[in-house]
Specification:
single chain; alpha/beta; Rossmann fold; two-stranded antiparallel sheet; 7 helices; 30% helix; globular
């Protein structure tokens, strides 16, 4: 049986709808999983049933994490949040941490996982972390725009057998302080944490870049999805 993976829904506020980038689904299917997108919900019983239905959770990109979730007020006009999504994902992450279910996060996924573990975020990088590294690229999104240093001895280093990686990048928030129990697996050229894992968990990992845009042509991106699916299958 292929492992079943819940892929967190993307929210379109203007159209009052949920949607999904095919790259998330296609990359998981190619790696051997059966992905599905659950409805957005804050109902505890529904959240528990979603959790019980799946073998793993993919935390996708999208809305900003509400700064109130890490004890701050929004300081910039470009902060766009989905409180329902924050609530649903944090509840699922707490269940995953409590039951050892595999989790893989991408972009916002890394940020919400960090907040779930007690960490904080830069609310707006151009305002709080001005530098020369491009973190919010323009299309096409499958091209690398900066490099990351991969920390030796981490699961990411063991999987990719590389000390560095060229990555695509599309985000304006990032990790400020690491959450409890999290360790950095990769750091950008300007010093931002770009990948994390939780050693106490069987599989709790996340990257700031977007392998769902590059899995079709990039072996490193495929390996990220494959290691996650393999963990869900165990």
């Amino acid at each position: 049986m292929r492992p079943v993976i819940a892929v967190m829904p993307l929210v379109d506020d203007e159209r009052e709808s949920l949607w999904m980038l095919p790259g998330y689904m296609d990359a998981l299917r190619e790696a051997g999983a059966v992905p599905f997108m659950p409805a957005l919900t804050t109902d505890d019983d529904e959240i528990r049933q979603i959790f019980d239905l799946c073998d793993g959770l993919l935390m996708t990109g999208g809305h900003d994490v509400d700064p109130r979730r890490y004890g701050e007020r929004p300081r910039f006009d470009n902060i766009v949040c989905s409180r329902a999504r924050d609530s649903m994902e944090l509840a699922l992450l707490r269940l995953a941490l409590g039951h050892g279910k595999p989790v893989f996060g991408i972009c916002r996924g890394l940020q919400i996982m960090n907040v779930c573990c007690g960490g904080t975020l830069y609310q707006d990088l151009p305002s709080e972390w001005p530098d020369g590294v491009e973190h919010h690229q323009r299309p096409p999104y499958d091209r690398p725009v900066h490099r990351v240093h991969i920390v030796a001895g981490t699961p990411l280093h063991e999987e990719l057998h590389a000390d560095g990686l060229a990555v695509n990048s599309y985000h304006h928030q990032a990790i400020r302080t690491l959450g409890d129990g999290l360790e950095a697996m990769a750091v950008s050229e300007d010093g931002l944490v770009e990948a994390v894992h939780r050693p106490a968990s069987s599989y709790f990992r996340a990257v700031q870049w977007h392998p769902e845009f590059r899995y079709g042509t990039d072996d490193a991106s495929r390996r990220l999805f494959r290691s996650f699916v393999d963990a869900c299958a165990r």
